[in-house]
Structures are given as C-alpha cells and as structure tokens.
Amino acid sequence: MPRPTALVASFALALALLGTSPGLDGAGAAPQPSADRSGAPPKAPTAVGRGGAVSSVDPYASRIGRNVLARGGNAVDAAVATAAALGVTEPYSAGIGGGGYFVFYNAKTGKVSTIDGRETAPAAMQPDAFIDPATGQPYPFSPDLVTSGVSVGVPGTPATWAKALRRWGSLSLRSALKPAARLARDGFVVDKTFRLQTKENAHRFRTFEPTFDLFLDDGLPVVGSLFRNPDLARTYERLGRRGTDWFYDGRLAAQIAATVQEPPLSGRTDLPAPPGSMTKADLADYRALLQAPTRVGYRGYDVYGMAPSSSGGTTVGESLNILEQFDLGAMPRRDVLHHYLEASALAFADRGEYVGDPAYVDVPTEHLLDDTFAKERACLIDPDTAATKPVPPGDVSSYDGVCGTAADGVAEPDTEGRSTTHLTTADRWGNVVAYTLTIEQTGGSGIVVPDRGFILNNELTDFSTVYDEDDPNRIQPGKRPRSSMSPTIVLRDGKPVLALGSPGGSTIITTVLQVLVNRLDLGMRLPRAVAAPRATQRNREAVTAEQAFIDRWGAVLEGYGHELVVAGPPGTSAAEIGAVAAIELGPRLRMTAVAEPTRRGGGSAYVVTPTYP
C-alpha cells in the first residue's frame, strides 16, 4: 500500500512520535489551531482540506491522529494513535479493556478488508451465567449485571491494533501509542460530558476500589480541571515495549483474569458484582480475525460494512436494499422518513432471527443481503400506513421476490449499551479507516484493573440474558456476542467517497443508515446529514427519537400510525442518538471531515492542510 518508502522517512516519523524530534505541535508540523483558554484543543465539527483527515468525538484524539498524518503516517497509523488517545479522554466508552471492528480501504489494491476485534466469552462461561443463583431469576440488567466480572469478555482492542499495524501500518505499536501515553501522563481538560458521565456512573464506580481511586477520590471531576492517568500512561508504554504478548499471555493477562474472577470490591455499595470465569488461558487463546466485509450496491455506490459477528453490515445493507426498491429522491421528506423507519424495522426483525457469531451459528449473510429477498421484504411496506410492530422476520430459505402475507412478530430484547466511540481517518494516498470501538455500557463493567488505569468491558451482556438454544445470540463459551457496530466505507467506481460510523448500541445501525439516506438520497451536504435530528425504529412498538425530531416530524409521522417517544430526559446522555464521525473524499482527495456539532459535547474534525472555498 502507499506509504513512505525511504528508510529515513519512516525513521523520522518514529522519532517524531517518540518525542526525540521537535514536538508534535512544534517546527516541521503543519500549522495547528490555537487552544482555547482552558488549554484544550479547539473543537470544530467540520474541516476541509488535503493531506489527510481525522474525525472523532474528541479534540485531543483527533489532533493526535492528524499529527501522525502530518508526520508521514498513513490512515492505519493515525487510526490506532487516535483510538489510543480516546482510551485516555473517553475512558468510559473505549480503551484496551474492550473491543471493536476495523474497516480498511487499501488505496493500492482497491480492496476493503476488516478486522473483527470483538470480545469473546470465557471457555468456562455457563448458559445460566446471568441468572442469580439466590433467586433463580436473571440479575437486574443495570446496575447489577452490568457492574460485574461475569459481564467481562476477553478484550480484543490490543490485538486489533497490533494486527492492523502489522498488515497495513508504517509505525510500530510502541510509536503509535507514544502520543496517547504522553496525553495520559500530562492530562486533559475535563469537559461537561466527562463530568456528566462520571456523575451518572458514580454509584457503580464506588463499588470498586481502583475505580473509585481513579475517578472519584477527589469527588466528581470539575469542568476545566486537568485529569491525569499516570497508570494508563505506564500501561501504554509497557504494551508498546513488550507487545501484545504481555497483555494476552503475560503478567497483565494474569492480572486481568484475577480481577474478573475476584472483582476488587470497596464495600461502599451493596451491588453484588458477580464474579466471572475468565482465565489467563482465555486471554492467550484470543485472536482478532481478518475477514471479508459485507457489500451491497446502492444507487451506483458500493457500501461496505462489518460482517457477523457484527450485525451492522447485514442490517444496514439489508435496509438499503429494501429502500432501493423505492424512488426516495422523488418523495416528500415525510414519505422518505416513513420508508426509512419501516425498512429499519424489517431488517431488525431479520437481525434478531438470524445473526450471531458465525463460528457458532449458520448466519445466512448472503441471503440477508440478496436483492430478491429485499424485494420481498419491501412488499410489506405500505406507503401510507405504518405496520404493526414488531414485524416478523422473513424466510431466508424460501423467497422469490413476490409479496406474501405478514405474520405476527416478536420484539427482540435490547441489552446493548449505547456508549461506544467511532473514528474515521484518511491519508494523502487515499487509504481510509472506519473504526468503531467500545467497552459497551458507559463505564463498561465499572472495574478498573488495579494500577493499570483502564476499565474492563461489559460486552457479554450483549448476549441474550436467558438461554434459548434456538437463539443465534445465546451464550456459548468462546463465542462473540452479537454487536450493532457499523463502521462503513462507501465507494463509487472503486474509489472511496464516504466513510462513517457512530456509537449508540443498537441505534448505531439506524444512525448510520439515516446519515446515508440523508446524504445519498436527500442530497444533504455531509455536515447537515450528520447534524440532522434522528429517530430509530428497531422493530419496537414505538419509534425512539430525539426531541428535535419529534418537534419537526412527530405529528406528521403519527399520521402514518407511527408512535414516537423521546429518547431520554433533556440534559442526559440518553437524550441523544449516536455521535457520528465521518469523512467525505472528493476530487484529487479533497477531504471533508465532519463530526457532531453538539451531540456528546460536540466532536472534532481535523485535516492536515486546510483549504477554503
């Protein structure tokens, strides 16, 4: 793939990131916007230019990724460096205690590849792991089950970073982690989102001594104060020096397993924090998987996504195939939204029926993404009336594109946490990365590994709580729980034109889908497509929507029979749906990087060399 070819160039890049040449914001780098008065980097939701681009939810992370690009690194180098920085500034959403999905467009080969870095269940996990032995009933999902060792899956993020850098990067893991280690040691300025998320999880965090010590020892973090994490800085430095063997088969692996088996309780709360069964052998057996992406054609574009164990690629892809049966561009906006909501419900019905970890379940991916299957599913959309929800799944074993009669459906339980993060990078050679990573719930399991500075995930709660042998997402040892993460890259004539993704649990799928419809069908410019109010229909009786969407479209859509409910109380993280980070690529690799203008406190978009109209 295109990358710096001269040894001196690669050596200079490594030295720059290791801090032995002028600082990342010093001489030789492209001009940087000045920081605000708090010392934090400035936030800008849109940046236009050339030479490379980064979009994420956080200005520190985006700046680090942009600096990697400015020093000659490629999109993969920048993605790993940005992700590591998000582990510092967004510790409740991502980090090395979690997992994710990495989608990569290679400009040299013109191909899209993916890495499945999803967490796995321990080998000793039992089908009744989520059942309280004292009552015989499932643990209350939140906070009891989430805040536990039994919810922790074997992390996949370090293995994902190492695999991506080995296959496509130009930096070593040590060099890629160096800026984030420095950020953890020097600290970042606390914003309103970080304080709010800490406050919302304070009771859970008090349950574990190392978590309390890191995040609450001095009370709730104050907006404008500096938050440092020297333990995480040391962890990154050791991971860089020793490699992922230290994490998966060394002393850190043993410590992670011990922490899961015996959570470090503080005695400050009465949460039960049931222990997990993870062992060092589970960590040693973990592998991040290189696999083919999903692909659907949509109105002259090729849309690539993440195949199972994620349901993102199949559900976004099926929704697009259904919508392609209609001329959305000729419809009034209200009709487009009605069709978007109905297509989402149909695809979610099929997701619940068929999608799980393909190593354990025969997932009919080819059928779910078949145009004939989509045509038959589209028959069920009445242009004037919303279907009664939940709608039933289609029959992937028998379809011919001819309309049939709908049966009754069953709503799928939704236990996916909505706190995740996404980043998108592109470089001067045209390589592109869309990468979604997570620790699941805001604050994950709540368990900080002692003296290591990172939170362990609660991804295993993405399994169905009650075991059913016919459920594709049932608990099984070694299995990856189904995910909704939907990192997406769109090509036209073999060249990337758009890359995007979002956090948000199962609303990730509808968020990505809605932005694609806004951009590709409604012709909105990317900043508007991202900022537009959102609604999500996941085969539920009601449509969940942001208040601004209800204010604008609620009465109109109720006329079709849709019931709309607000996503969450104002001023809480639940009030918002998604937090998109996207990059659009134009002629001669002119890039438009776009992040959220307001959601989750507003994101941050950077380009290496800004240009202006």
Automatic annotation (TrEMBL):
Transmembrane segments: none annotated. Residues 26-53, 467-488 are annotated as: Disordered. Gene3D superfamilies: 1.10.246.130, 3.60.20.40. Keywords: Acyltransferase, Glutathione biosynthesis, Hydrolase, Signal, Transferase, Zymogen. Cleaved by autocatalysis into a large and a small subunit. Pathway: Sulfur metabolism; glutathione metabolism. This is Glutathione hydrolase proenzyme. It comes from Nocardioides antri. The gene is ggt.
